[in-house]
Amino acid sequence: MTDFTRTRALFDLPQGITYLDGNSLGPLPTATADRVARTVTQEWGAQLISAWNTADWMAMPRALGDRIGRLIGAEPGQTVIGDTLSIKVFQALAAALHLNPGRRVILSDTGNFPTDLYMAEGLLKLLPDGFELRTVPPEDVAQNITEDIAVTLLTEVDYRTGRRHDMGALTRLAHDNGALTIWDLAHSAGAFPVHVAQGGADFAVGCTYKYLNAGPGAPAFIYVAPRHAEHAEPALAGWLGHKAPFAFDLNYIPGAGIERMRVGTPPVLQMAALEAALDVWEGVDLDALRARSLELADRLVAAVEASTDLALATPRDPAMRGSQVSFRHPQGYAIMQALIAAGVIGDFRAPDILRFGITPLYLSEGDIDHAAATLAQILDSRAWDRPEYRARKPVT
């Protein structure tokens, strides 16, 4: 059984703050600052350019990819990190369309994170006429997976409500209809057990700065199923995806397997932070993490519903939700700003969502109770009804 008291001690959490926003940006692991400093001084500073070899910088995207692969249920050697999540969505989508010629419809849902849809729209502008991005309500995805669909582009957990798609069932349905699947795991990786190989996913992408706690700007990852790895066309054919990048061949030859999904120079300092963050996961039982997450989420829902009139936006059925709890209120933004000012940090998503990440690695029952009590006090006293809490900040 995972000791969550032990894992909590592995984070540098500010005194007096209850942090329920790890679904947006994970907190700082205590080991990260020293690990990044060592990379700066002992590797970059002392070894200069030699560190690409002596410190294995060039090999880190695959090594870290495999460590993430274990958290998402991937086969060894099928996951690599680098670039941003938007870029990885673009790569996966272009590759999937190339693997499924003759079909021209991308199916997504209206709850998907906007950047995924932007990437799809941008890609389609570069393709011949006749390609289509089709979006439907999340609950209608299954009935819209038909024989004209080339690929489904779905985020497993809805970033607003926390509603969770059934990866296995939708992937089977897609394959039965001749479609491929891309799963965005931005709100899944590190939140609960994921099974991309067992579930039959064709591609999966995700970020590392949320539940994986690798810091702002941390690199994304991409998974490609073994059956596609030697045939996927990455579209963004960067030099590090070349079979022999230091041959400086003017003609692109894709690297072997997942290597072809590399694009630009690895972000070395961010990889150092990611390496330290992944150390936290050593010895963590993901099933225990999921069970604890559901316990804490249910505790928050019960406390908030008993003391406020907020409307629950997250599904009550545990099987249908990720690791966040969301509530609706017309004054959600101002309420959240007042809550943050009181030392309880969640976040707001338009138009009316107050969102709370449930992260058992460092959250306790006491944190949940304090957050619910503070929220109730703010609503009861209308402390949120002040001009400074209504003024919109650049990041919500």
From TrEMBL:
UniProt cross-references to Pfam families, sorted A to Z: KYNU_C
GO terms assigned for molecular function: kynureninase activity; pyridoxal phosphate binding
An example Gene Ontology CC term for this record: cytoplasm
E.C. code: 3.7.1.3
Swiss-Prot/TrEMBL GO biological process terms: anthranilate metabolic process; L-kynurenine catabolic process; L-tryptophan catabolic process to kynurenine; NAD+ biosynthetic process; quinolinate biosynthetic process
Cofactor(s) it depends on: pyridoxal 5'-phosphate
Entry superkingdom: Bacteria
Chain ranges passing through the membrane: none
Class of this enzyme: hydrolase
Binding-site residues, pyridoxal 5'-phosphate: L85, S86, F113, P114, T115, D116, T155, D184, H187, Y209, W239, T265
Catalytic activity line of the entry: 3-hydroxy-L-kynurenine + H2O = 3-hydroxyanthranilate + L-alanine + H(+); L-kynurenine + H2O = anthranilate + L-alanine + H(+)
Pathway membership, UniProt: Cofactor biosynthesis; NAD(+) biosynthesis; quinolinate from L-kynurenine: step 2/3; Amino-acid degradation; L-kynurenine degradation; L-alanine and anthranilate from L-kynurenine: step 1/1
This protein's UniProt keywords: Hydrolase, Pyridine nucleotide biosynthesis, Pyridoxal phosphate
Modified residues (N6-(pyridoxal phosphate)lysine): K210
Self-association and partners: Homodimer.
Function: Catalyzes the cleavage of L-kynurenine (L-Kyn) and L-3-hydroxykynurenine (L-3OHKyn) into anthranilic acid (AA) and 3-hydroxyanthranilic acid (3-OHAA), respectively.
PANTHER family (alphabetical): KYNURENINASE
NCBIfam families noted in UniProt: kynureninase (TIGR01814)
Family statement: Belongs to the kynureninase family.
Name of the molecule in the record: Kynureninase
Lineage: Bacteria, Pseudomonadati, Pseudomonadota, Alphaproteobacteria, Rhodobacterales
